[in-house]
Amino acid sequence: MSLTLTVDGERWRRHLREVAEATPGLVPVAKGNGYGFTLGRLARRTQWLADQGLGCDTLAVGTYDELPHVATRYDGSLLVLTPWRPFGAALELDPALDRRVIHTVSRTEDVADLLDRRPGARFVLERATSMLRHGMTARGLWAAAREVAARPGARVEGVALHLPLAHGAHLTEVRRLVNDVVAAELDLRTIWVSHLSAGELAELRASYPDLTFRPRIGTDLWLGDRGALRVTATVLDVHEVERGDSYGYRHRTAPKAGHILVVSGGTAHGIGLEAPTGDASIRARAATVARGGLDAAGFVRSPFSIDGKQRLFAEPPHMQASMLFLPHGARVPEVGEQVDVRVRYTATAFDRVVVS
Ligand SMILES: *Cc1c(COP(=O)(O)O)cnc(C)c1O
């Protein structure tokens, strides 16, 4: 009935422990759809890692709105990655979480604004990187550091850098940015970073022995061992069709004999159309039409595969189910059978997550 994420629990937990052991200062990131697992489950897992003495004194969430999903399941500090602004959800923070939340301040003027409202606030100062998403210039950081120095109640917890995904090409940029931090006349000993390899972190730690580097990791932690994960849909119905039979919301006609399969998983789960198959040139399309190819009939590749072969949508996915076309000759699965689905975990809402 469901679009299901099945997790080999022992293998997944072993991977989480290995990453935590190998990554001093690790800050797990739980945001969005919880990387497919849900935010609550990731918060409980982070608590489980912390309870084993594997660090994890801080969990990062993406937004202020996500805090209620994790705060009751994990008892450490909560870093909010979306920068604080003097409006919206940041101002509606539950006072009970005041001491646990670490804000991200990415504009110089927000330092005074935040501290006027919450004089004892904990926060990191975000320095802009080549990503240019959020963050201050070096001058902005120095001005912020002066503002902080004038406010004895402020609890600045370090500097945050959000780096692009270019694995292996970061060190020059990070060194330049870290030098800006060192030049700020403030005790900023902790640098919170993303997307650095273990080798890059080791080099930075060797170059800056006085600083503590804290890597924020989501994907490589939760989704780092794909072999522990399997995504399946259920075959809900099977209909035999002859060439010319009509089906679907738009009464398309079957281009040849085969079966229409109805499987669980649709737009509500994040199942979308994939790129059209094969060569899209007119000549290639004409050749496929001549052979009676299904892509020429306008069929688009789906993320569902049966017996290892990726199948085509018979029409665009519906809200919670999809219709696939299975040409004559292929093995026809039974109603109730599970079929594999290739998904982007961060963009999929599973009906069920089953952890063994
Ligand atoms: C999402 C995010 C991360 C973690 O990214 P992954 O690629 O999932 O490890 C780290 N830092 C920030 C600011 C983020 O938004």
Could you outline the blueprint of secondary structure elements for this entry?
Elements lengths: L3 E4 L1 H14 L4 E4 L8 H13 L6 E4 L5 H5 L5 E4 L20 E5 L2 H10 L4 E6 L10 H12 L5 E7 L9 H13 L6 E5 L3 H10 L4 E6 L1 H4 L6 E13 L4 E2 L4 E2 L4 E7 L17 H9 L9 E7 L2 E5 L7 E7 L10 E4 L10 E4 L1
Parallel strand pairs: 1-18, 2-3, 2-9, 3-4, 4-5, 5-6, 6-7, 7-8, 8-9
Antiparallel strand pairs: 1-10, 10-13, 10-17, 11-12, 13-16, 14-15, 14-17, 15-16
Helix pairs in contact: 4-5
Q: Report the biggest beta sheet as strand number plus sense, adding barrel if it closes.
A: 8 strands, parallel, barrel
What is the arithmetic mean of pLDDT?
Answer: 92
CATH architecture of the largest domain: Alpha-Beta Barrel
Number of DSSP E strands:
18
Q: Which hetero compounds are present in the coordinates?
A: pyridoxal-5'-phosphate
CATH superfamily of the largest domain: Alanine racemase
User: Which strand order do you get reading across the main beta sheet?
Assistant: 2-3-4-5-6-7-8-9
What's the CATH class label of the largest domain? Alpha Beta
Could you state the oligomeric state of the chains shown? Answer: single chain
User: Strand portion, in percent?
Assistant: 25-35%
Ends distance: 19 Å
Rg from C-alpha positions? 25 Å
Inertia-based shape: elongated
- Overall SS class: alpha/beta
- CATH fold label of the largest domain: TIM Barrel
